[in-house]
Predict the structure.
Amino acid sequence: MAQNPDIATAVKKIKDAEDAYDKAARYYRGEHDLCFATEKFRNVFGQLFREFALNMCPAVVDAVRDKLVVENFSVEEGDAGIAEEAWAIWQANRMGVAAGQVHKEAVKNGDAYAIVWPNPSTGKVTIYPNRAANCCVEYDDETPGKILWAAKYWKTNDKRLRMNLYYPDRIERFATKQDKWLDEAAKSTTPTPMLNATAFEPLADGPVITNPYGIVPVFHFANNADLDGAGQSELAAALPIQDALNKSVLDMMVAMEFSAYRQRWAAGIEIEYDETTGAPIPPFKAGIERLWITENGEAKFGDFEATDLEQFLSVKDGFRTDMATVTGTPLHYFMLTGAAFPQSGVSIEKLESRFLNKVRDRQQAFGQTWEDLMAFALLIEGKKDVRLFVDWQDPAPMSELDKLNNLILKKEIGVTDSELMTEAGYGEDDIKRMLEEKAAAREAMVRSFNAGEDLEENAK
């Protein structure tokens, strides 16, 4: 039987993206490609500073990831119980944590994936987050955003390679021959060693699983995607600046290493030469515990000035500013300053306007994928044609003082007490009680005022 041509396409897609995903993951972990001014410096200091990195990459990724918090699901109209069922599935899959991992993978690498399928043991809907390096999707050129098929690739515990192809009507499963590929896969240093497409053959134990839902069960989270659907890592523009920042700090550390022990000089003394080589013999040996003395009264001693490191610090801070500029991340995420940081939610939003716009864009893109994913999960549960909306946590929440000032302004323009209390977060029972107490207090005040007027009239 001829091999499915989509296997070769999936292998090529995964291979093409492998280097970019690996570099983004390495830089996020702090495993950077260090640069030195010369090969001599590399030989001398490369081993000393091999694990050094002034890593700004986590700040770029985590600043966005931390703002992407799903709070609930809602429906535009109709049965509100659908939203409750969706949230129950979400909580059952512990997506409070898993969704954060998906967002981090997408922001860091540009892509992330999640597969939804009934658990083979329990039959319950299960959401499986997946790494970008293990999956790929094929979009329909005629219908942008529509996934024709998807692939997942991984290495099993017995060192075989597996690949699943997901279609709207079926799932095709493949594996490599263990006796042919075991040794080569075992030698690989990567988590998912990719072999030639011809290495895969249909799985002997049930090569095809029917998909009765008519939808590819793989969902693609593309960060800052282009029209072709491919995501872009938030680190794409940051990596060259990260390399330059590391270079500036390494140069400063090399300068510190040379200037830590100030260089001495001596003049006016007679130099002896080696009779065999003719090379000059140093008259003194430098050291903290050593004293230089000579009988020559004309000799002079001194030392060179210490290296000025201020220029290195200025360059380093300049690269931090560049990092903030190209990534749209607020500068205070990279460096602490003596200026007081604004506590007002409105002030923060003004300061971080570009960054918050980027976060809201990611909420919009990821939200649509989560909505489609949860609608598919409900389809598995028998709920058809569901339209959900993601309720995101506000990326720029207002402080209590801002909320109070906002309510005061609304009261001045005529908003009712009941509406103000609802916006303040009080429940119906509390609002009813407070309005009744307020009305009773007003009535008591009127009675007291009237009683005072009667006493005054009687006195006359």
